[in-house]
Design a protein that fits this description.
Blueprint (H helix, E strand, L loop, with lengths): L1 E4 L8 E4 L10 E8 L3 H8 L17 E5 L5 E5 L10 E4 L5 E2 L6 H6 L1 H14 L7 E5 L4 H11 L6 E6 L2 H8 L5 E4 L5 H11 L4 E4 L3 H13 L10 E4 L12 H5 L2
Parallel strand pairs: 8-9, 8-11, 9-10, 11-12
Antiparallel strand pairs: 1-2, 3-4, 3-6, 4-5, 5-7
């Protein structure tokens, strides 16, 4: 069968013939209809992810996807340890997936769960967003950030959702999809806008997909812009580092709040 194959860390996969999977341990061979090219998949095959050490090369990438079982059912499932899902066929646990409704196409069904579950977990557990909360999403124009904006205002009932990102087109769209206000990074001063909003109505939760300089500006603004900062805790949830792995932060920002 044909598959994507990674033969060297950090190199693009090649499209080539690989052996057919052998059924084992209750797993069955299923026809793969779609597999998502997520940041997780990219990080794993770059060799830089903490879980990369568990992968032996050559390897087929793809941590999840949609596959059709022998009985005709279509399920969203994860690769079960015997190989990735960027192949014509893969081994899957027939009882370990979620059946895909017929009105949802396979590409959409493969693409949604990874960012969707990530956004939901950040909102429900780490940020513990409650109805009426004031929420800021840093990096809202990315896929997961966009989903977090939509979920915050609908499923979680946030009172105000502010989306911060660089794509003005995406920010305009987010206004129609759940964002009550936006911050166009690069065109507007991020720290100044956060300070202005926080002083007027303190943020209850911040979801940060950026880190780096934007996170430093946001934390500094949150700490210094509201007279009741000591008494109104803001839950700052660090999720991604698209703007850089480190940040320059004055120690007093954390020590004084």
């Amino acid at each position: 069968m044909l598959a994507a194959l990674v033969t060297e860390w950090g190199r693009h996969p090649v499209y080539t013939e690989v052996p057919e999977p052998d059924p084992r341990d209750g797993a069955e061979v299923a026809e793969v209809e779609a597999s998502a090219l997520t940041n997780l998949t990219r990080a794993l095959v770059s060799g830089k992810h903490y879980a990369s050490k568990e992968i032996q090369l050559p390897a087929v990438p793809g941590v999840d996807g949609v596959a059709r079982l022998a009985d005709g059912r279509r399920i969203y499932t994860g690769a079960n340890g015997y190989g990735g899902m960027m192949a014509q066929r893969a081994l899957v646990d027939p009882a370990g997936g979620v059946e895909v409704p017929e009105h949802v196409d396979s590409v959409t069904a493969a693409a949604l769960p990874n960012p969707g579950i990530s956004a939901w977990a950040a909102l429900s557990h780490a940020a513990a967003v409650k109805p009426g909360d004031h929420v800021l999403v840093l990096g809202a124009t990315g896929v997961t950030g966009s989903m977090a904006v939509q979920l915050a205002g609908t499923l979680f009932g946030a009172g105000t959702v502010v989306a911060a990102g660089r794509s003005t087109d995406r920010l305009a769209w987010l206004r129609s999809a759940g964002a009550h206000d936006t911050i166009a990074m690069g065109e507007q001063g991020l720290g100044a806008r956060i300070a202005e909003m926080h002083a007027e109505h303190p943020f209850d939760a911040v979801l940060d997909y950026l880190w780096g300089q934007p996170a430093a500006e946001a934390l500094t603004a949150l700490a210094g812009s509201h007279p009741a900062a000591h008494y109104h805790p803001t839950r700052f949830v660090q999720i991604g580092s698209m703007a850089g792995p480190t940040l320059p932060l004055d120690a007093g920002v954390l020590r004084g709040t």
